[in-house]
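Subject: for your reference before the review

Hello V.,

The reviewers asked for a structural picture of the protein, and I figured it would be easier to keep everything in one thread rather than splitting it across files. Below is the amino acid sequence we used in the manuscript, unchanged from the supplementary table.
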Amino acid sequence: MIEGLRNAIRLPDIRNKILFTLMIVVIYQFAAHVPVVGVDREAMRSLIENQGGLFGVLNLLSGGALANFSVIANGVYPYITASIILQVLTPVIPQLEALSKEPGGRDKIETYTYYLAIPFAILQAVSQIQIFSSLNNGQQIIPGFGSDILLTLAVIVTMTAGTMFAVWLGNLITEQGIGNGLSIIIFSGIVARAPENLIRLIGGATQPLFQIILFIVIIVVGVIGVILVQEGVRRVPVQYGKRVRGRKQYGGASTHIPLKVNSVGMIPLIFAQSIITFPALIVGLFPDGPVRQTITATFGQQQGGIYWVSFFLLVFGFTYIYSDIMVGNQNLAENLQRNGGFIPGIRPGKRTQDYISRVVRRITFVGALFLGIVAITPGLVDLLNRTLFPTEFVSGTAGNAALVLSGSGLIIVVGVVIDTLRQLEAQLVMRNYDRFMR
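And here is what came back from the structure prediction:
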């Protein structure tokens, strides 16, 4: 692998892609430190010290920008939400499905995603400020927001523009750099915050040695588990029929379709985290009351059995839904039939498609179960700490080893590294260099 990375750096075009990606990440991190006009720094400091789960999740999705309540504090979350909605609706609405199959149809759907992301960005900007003020014991994050019209408009417009700027930076990485741009932006925020979270864990935990050992165990087991599940495949045998043209014989080869145990990577986790924060953000728009307080306590501070069960079910369900969408979009049965291929013992056409769907759903169960368990790891660690140290329990990052990266963050980090290395390897293989990932 080291030799492969050296080869990548030696090649001017690949080196330029890597440097371009790093430059965009640096620009994003600079923008993450430019605060929105009118932000109360003391209130933000108080919120960070007593941050709830919602703050941590949104800070994760914003690539670390929320900690400073910067102009890109919304991050790419509104765009992700818009993308979820359109991807789920595409197989359901015939017009969207027909549009997706037309030449240039995917580009039009992408344009619709941008348009839909704008109202979501406005909604998130307003509700985010309200909910964080509520979580901060009523201390306003932006004093005068809502009462001062000019200040309110300036904050909303700035944060909405910041969202589209963050998405644009991510797309620049995808088009001209290495890796998936949005994933790399989230990845950079997780990595940038990890040292600070680790220091907070060591300094704030009542059992620092136990928490450090637990952190190492979570990292080692998590990385091994993520790699095994991400790389695990079920090989479905495929046979191609023989064709004779003149004196030459074509086809007759045997191959396989590699169906991955987790074919959707960390996307269900990002989707589930986007949806699980929605109730707390929505109630932030309504007057205070018992319902708002209950929802804020459950989904805002992300505590209790209801939250963790809901999160597990969302991750599990999204894994199945997105796997079905991906398999359906690939049209494997149709492509096999067009090329004269068939699965032994299975009729071509609909029977083949049904067989592939059944296999995918069976193996997806393992991937969905794994993602769900990883997602609720912080809740399991909280339960362990409450059981072992009931009188010394500390909530938040300072007392939970799983929150240094979080289960979702660990999968995103490992997944982004694997995906980026694969793209880098593809660039090298095209230039006749040996593979460096085995």
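For the response letter, the relevant points are probably these. Strands lie at 233-240, 242-245, 248-251, 254-260, 341-342. Residues 105-135 form the longest helix (31 residues).

Happy to draft the paragraph if you're swamped.

O.
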